[in-house]
Design a protein that fits this description.
about 400 residues, mainly alpha, 13 helices
Length: about 400
């Protein structure tokens, strides 16, 4: 009973923190135009501010994993929440481009740090029987944050000042800080340590490096696809589909709602099937269907249906991907491994939109999304062979 209460309390706290991390990162998107108008920031400098968030995420993932390993979950969580509060309080008073750049970098650093903190903690407090469901709740919270962030900031600024959305998130961060400070973080019972010879230790490290390369590559491709979609869909919808800003906003809202609603159910399915990789592949296939529908059709209801399917795909992929890492990576390596995976994958969010932009300039407005389909297809192929190899090793007779 006590263990169940501990799990539920920690889960609720992780859900709230995940919500905050995604709200704070996405809520500034509708405010960029206001910053341009009020502070006279050029479009080029605005793009730098946008990119610095992803640079911060690239730097922060591996760093958070190492700190988690050194100082533990509680200290890392509290430190990140303090940084989040400071960041939110400084944004309203920052008027220079240099200060805004520092804060935007810090925002990315903290956002990915909180993601690592939450995902590693969830994988520590869960088992293979409920890991998918718990990660599903986190993915659902991330979807909710992506909806509420821009919606909340846009509505609040319409009635109040530019500072109020930042103060709102700072208040939530303060509440989370108090909650985390009262939490107890217990790892699963440690397995008896066995003495390994040097060749065995080297073999284990080599295996971890191979896994890191494979999973980082898959996540790099998925993050690349997501970043391209986030960067260029509004342009495509405006000039190719001739949509209004309200219609474009509705498309992103549909994705967020679809992820929010479907993620917990998909997580439970992941636990029942005990085949995380097949769900990862299914999720990527759904994302590919989403892209194909708006490339090949112009009817609004079909495109919106694609967005709904894409939201389910994102939930399938994220739930199963993080649960798979929790299943296969030993607890002593888990924080650094997950931190390294998310850090390396953020390179995709930095590099791929630039490549997609070059394709748009050289070919057509549709070219970035055909490139997107190729990236997603490669990720599916890699995961197919990973799954095939995993099944082969399971079926191999002992002795």
């Amino acid at each position: 009973m006590k263990k169940h209460l501990y799990l539920n309390r920690n889960l609720i706290c992780m859900i709230v923190i995940s919500l905050i991390a995604n709200m704070s990162g996405s809520m500034i998107l509708p405010l960029f135009a206001i910053y341009v108008e009020q502070f006279g920031i050029s479009a080029f400098r605005m793009s730098i501010l946008f990119s610095l968030f992803y640079v911060g995420r690239f730097v922060g993932g591996g760093l958070a994993g190492r700190i988690y390993e050194k100082v533990g979950a509680k200290r890392l969580g509290l430190s990140l929440l303090i940084a989040e509060i400071v960041c939110m309080l400084l944004f309203p008073v920052a008027e220079s481009f240099i200060m805004l750049s520092i804060l935007r970098f810090l925002q990315g650093l903290v956002a990915i740090g909180l993601t690592v903190f939450v995902r590693v903690t969830i994988n520590h407090i869960s088992t293979m029987e409920n890991r998918g469901a718990l990660n599903g709740y986190i993915s659902s919270s991330e979807g909710a944050g992506m909806i509420l962030g821009p919606l909340m900031s846009g509505m609040i600024v319409s009635f109040f000042s530019l500072a109020v959305p930042f103060y709102f998130v700072a208040l939530f961060s303060c509440i989370s800080f108090v909650a985390v400070s009262r939490m107890a973080f217990f790892h699963s019972p440690a397995q008896p340590q066995q003495q390994h010879s040097l060749p065995q230790t080297s073999k284990r490290k080599t295996m971890l490096m191979k896994q890191l390369l494979l999973y980082s590559t898959v996540h790099f491709l998925e993050m690349s696809a997501f970043a391209i979609f986030l960067t260029y869909f509004s342009i495509y919808a405006t000039y190719k589909l001739h949509w209004s800003p309200a219609e474009i906003s509705l498309a992103f809202t549909i994705i967020g709602i679809s992820t929010f609603v479907s993620a917990p159910l998909i997580g439970q399915i992941s636990d029942i099937l005990k085949d995380r990789l097949i769900l990862c592949m299914a999720g990527l296939l759904f994302i590919m269907v989403e892209i194909v529908l708006f490339l090949w059709f112009t009817e609004q209801w079909i495109v919106y249906l694609g967005m709904f399917v894409g939201g389910i795909g994102g939930a399938c992929y994220l739930d199963s991907f993080y649960s798979q890492l929790g299943d296969i990576i030993p607890e002593e390596h888990r924080s650094l491994f997950i931190g390294s995976v998310v850090s390396l994958s953020e390179l995709g969010a930095i590099v791929s939109p630039i490549i997609a932009g070059a394709l748009l300039e050289c070919f057509s407005i549709s070219a970035p999304f055909y490139y997107n389909i190729i990236l997603v297809f490669i990720a599916i192929v890699i995961q197919y062979f990973m799954r095939l190899r995993s099944q082969t090793s399971k079926n191999r007779p002992l002795g």
